[in-house]
Amino acid sequence: MSVVSAAGTPPTPAPSESGGERRDRRSDRRRDRDEQQPWTPKTRLGVLVSTGKVTNLEEIFESGQKIKEPEIVRILAPDMKTNVVSVGIVQKQTDAGEVTKFAAVVAVGNEGGWFGVGRGKAVQMRNAIDKATNDAFLNLIPVKLGCGSWECRCGRLHSVPFRISGKGGSVRVDIIPGPRGLGLVAGETVRNLLTLAGVKDAWTRTYGSTSTMSSIANAVYDALKRIHGIGVVR
């Protein structure tokens, strides 16, 4: 016997939900629950930060420890800013059909010598950006600033100490020290990334497929990371 509504027509069935939407909704509920609950550190470094025995990021990197929990950065550097570099759609063919997800690249920095780049994938864009932000916190590095321009030599921390180069995919980025007051001579994406890192004055050159935002972000990250390991790039 069929059920009929008061208007004499059968009720409209509820729309079915795909597996990806169900997983993403569960992920949203889990994340909201995690945001409401206090952070419980899972690593030794997390315990030291939560108890106040480690109070700044410099201590962590000087001791050679690795950050494995994004909450550590959120506590020690609450002024960290984020920049969504790119968000795209990726598809994967499985036995059950095509699975479509968002892939995000996010850069973080405090505009004072700390910088990181991360990637994340999820069914919903918001979740992908959150995952990429957490990954960027885990990839955080100190940026060695200086005044490497022969035209300036003011000794202030406004540029990079020497010419550096980095590579990401098919993209290569050269960062050349500039005199104080020059600003950032770069495209919009590179300029935003260097601003996050704390670089105020520099010339830049880019080579390769510069329309690929993720490769540009990785190239800038690679260049800033190389400051600690190499000398002048010739």
Condensed summary:
The protein is an alpha+beta fold.
What does the model show?
- The strands form two sheets. This protein has a four-stranded antiparallel β-sheet.
- It is of the alpha+beta class and 234 residues long.
- β7 (184-185), α6 and β8 form a beta-alpha-beta unit.
- The model is unreliable at 1-7 and 230-234 (pLDDT under 50).
- The protein has helices at 19-36, 44-50, 57-62, 70-76, 125-138, 188-197, 213-226, and strands at 81-94, 97-109, 114-122, 141-142, 164-168, 171-177, 184-185, 202-207.
- It has a domain at 44-142: Double Stranded RNA Binding Domain (2-Layer Sandwich), CATH 3.30.160.
- The chain is built from seven helices and eight strands.
- 30% of the residues are buried.
